[in-house]
Amino acid sequence: VLAQFLMEESGKAYCLVRKGHYATAANRLRHIMFYYFGSRYDHELETRVEVIDGDVTKPDTLKPLIKKGINTVFNCAANVKHFSKGTDIEDINVGGVKTAIEFCLKAKARLIHFSTTSVAGFTRVENGRPALTLNEQTLFSGQNLDNKYTGSKMMSELEVFKAVAEHGLVAKVIRVGTLAAREEDGEFQINFLTNSFMGRLRSYALLGKFPYTLYSGRVCLGPIDMSARAFLKLAKTPAECRLFHCVNNHILPLGDIIRAMNAEGIPVEFVEPEEFNEALDEAAKDPQKANILAAMLAYRNMAGDPSLIPTPVTSDYTTQVLIRSGFFWNASDESYVKAFIDVLKGYCFFEQDNLVR
After folding, report:
1. Scanning 96, 202, 227, 309, which has its CA 20 to 30 A from the CA of 337?
2. Are 267 and 148 spatial neighbours (Cβ–Cβ below 8 Å)?
3. Is the separation of the CB atoms in 55 and 95 below 8 Å?
């Protein structure tokens, strides 16, 4: 998002960054930008970016920014773990957005808050049809939110719209789908190990099996470089446009990605569901493997109720907004899938001895 801003816009960017293990927050940001872009944005980082050492869970760290004349805040901060024994997920995903809201109201800035289409959760089947479809006019309608992550992201959305209704906050919520590798070169996010979709692919590689019944599963991959362009387009829409589903309108069967993995030397056998479940149960007995498979096991337990299905998500409204802004998604073809699998292979992402670490 920062790179896209520096490429397309002429303003200044203020970046709230935790310094972590780095000497300064600025050093951490420069390291991350070099990982993704090399030296492409070195000049802009020196002349158009000011880095603040801060944390969305510590509101006082935002105080130096109040009088900077900031007019737009992108809240990209999130804890993407699905399960946790503590409150770290809620502290960041709900507490963080409260911090952003408070700042925007004081600075008279608009808020662009990132959520996820995963807030669709699960819904009941009634008369052979899903009881609910999540679109850009739907908040919480009783869908089953099966983990702390999706629950926290829904709560964060409600905080934003509560502030819009009660305090006049100018804000947008952008629900993102499956963020994926760059279209430009297949490069993926630096913390790819925590990405939910890539974790699924990793789980299939660990098991060496994939059920026939999931072959036609719908996957809409949003290359992160294209997604960032779309985010900036949506940020510029009128104030009355408040909720978007930024999802690639081109569908790729999940089975095609598994075929591509096979073609790249990552053996995953297509099997009947019973054989797949047996392999999953057997692998779950190994604590190291069970850690990798945790999300898949939790999803299977939820999906084991035949009266519950993943709530369908539509993005027709957002697609129409984007094409009217001159933005069009490209289809995820075989060359794109091959590129990001090759990159992940380069990190030994699918290696069996690496899967259980």
Report:
1. 309
2. no
3. no
